[in-house]
Amino acid sequence: MGIVGLDHVQLAMPRDGEADARSFYGAVLGLVEVPKPADLAKRGGCWFVGDGVNIHLGVEEPFRAAAKAHPALLVDDLAATREYLATHGIKFSEGSPLDGYVRGDIHDPFGNRIELMQKL
User: Which residues form the VOC domain (predicted)?
Assistant: First the structure.
């Protein structure tokens, strides 16, 4: 046995949150929405992809945002990303030191934590 990669990360969202998900993950983060398989689409939610990133949002009831568990997305320029996010009203919190990285956190419209990391 050997793990060879990571296919996707799934985050929870409340029912009928697709428009907010599209605005944040698509319009702001620049990920592309891809169709969910028909059997899964009837449950709600959205799937997004980018370079080496697959994020699935699924409806969870009752909904509870992930405050600790999170995806960590690599960015090429954290300072520029932070400035860009500020223009969209997205708050950025500095991360604690981690050898080889600068990092910080943002939250999606549902309160899920997302870590942003830049390799030094």
Answer: 5-119
Q: Which domains occur in the chain, in start order?
A: 9-119 (3.10.180.10)
Bridge partners for 113 per DSSP: 107
Whole-number Å distance between alpha carbons of 5 and 52: 10
- Name every residue whose Cβ is closer than 8 Å to that of residue 116 and which is 6 or more positions away in sequence: 72, 73, 75, 78, 81, 82, 92, 103, 104, 105, 106
Tens digit of each residue's pLDDT (9 = 90 or more) over 54-68? 999 999 999 999 999
